[in-house]
Write a structure and sequence with these properties.
By secondary structure, this protein is mostly helical. Helices cover 69% and strands 0% of the residues. Helix 2 runs antiparallel to helix 3, helix 5 packs antiparallel against helix 7 and helix 8 runs antiparallel to helix 9. The two termini are 33 Å apart.
Length: 221
């Protein structure tokens, strides 16, 4: 079982600094060289995280498409090697689900691969839940797949089911600060919170406000 850890934070911080500069291409090349030497789940995950870190800085539709595809594909390669790699399962499913929202570039969405579908992303949430069942104690990460499942229901206009999912999740959550990968893991919470406010659904808004304040105390709402 592979859960988020401090090494992920160090890697993400390095990547986020690198992708903002002209050193982006050199950083990607370095990660590919590392992959050629290491060829394990972590090397593939590093490339997935690199492409995810690039997404906010890409404006061209086709380049955005490449970042999205590469995030999903490198994460999938990681999962092929380590089927219990929770961060890789999270990353590819988060990207796939969030590509269905109204703010996604239409060209990037049109070009998304059909071999990793929204249904596959939903199935990954149940894989993550199964992994979490093996933890010795409840972890704040346990809420994450439920939030993604609820978000998928909101995207399908099934608000009633989304609320049921959030209610069930609330019974089994440890409300404390997310220790690692919080800058990425917070994204589906923010997206679902934005959707809840657009819908004017007070119960959903209350769930998200309470959880975000506890899990991501520095997040502005």
């Amino acid at each position: 079982m592979r859960m988020p850890n401090r090494d992920d934070d160090i890697l993400l911080q390095t990547l986020q600094i690198g992708v903002k500069t002209s050193a982006r291409d050199k950083l990607e090349e370095k990660l590919r060289v590392q992959l050629s030497r290491q060829n394990d789940a972590e090397a593939y995950f590093a490339l997935a995280l690199f492409n995810c870190a690039c997404i906010p800085f890409v404006t061209d539709g086709q380049k955005l498409h490449k970042c999205l595809i590469d995030t999903i594909e490198w994460s999938s390669r990681s999962v092929e090697i380590d089927k219990e790699h929770w961060p890789a399962l999270f990353l590819r499913s988060m990207v796939r689900l969030m590509m269905n929202d109204d703010e996604t570039d239409e060209m990037a969405m049109y070009l998304l691969p059909i071999d990793y579908t929204e249904k596959d992303a939903i199935d990954d949430q149940y894989r993550m839940i199964d992994i979490q069942k093996t933890l010795s104690e409840h972890s704040p990460y346990c809420i994450v797949p439920y939030v993604q499942l609820a978000y998928a229901k909101v995207l399908d206009k099934d608000i009633k089911s989304a609320i049921y999912i959030l209610r069930d999740a609330g019974e089994d959550i440890k409300l404390e600060k997310i220790p690692h990968l919080k800058n990425v893991i917070r994204l589906p919470f923010i997206s679902l919170n934005k959707s809840a406010h657009k819908l004017g659904n007070h119960e959903m808004c209350n769930f998200l406000y309470y959880w975000i304040r506890a899990l991501f105390p520095n997040q502005k709402l």
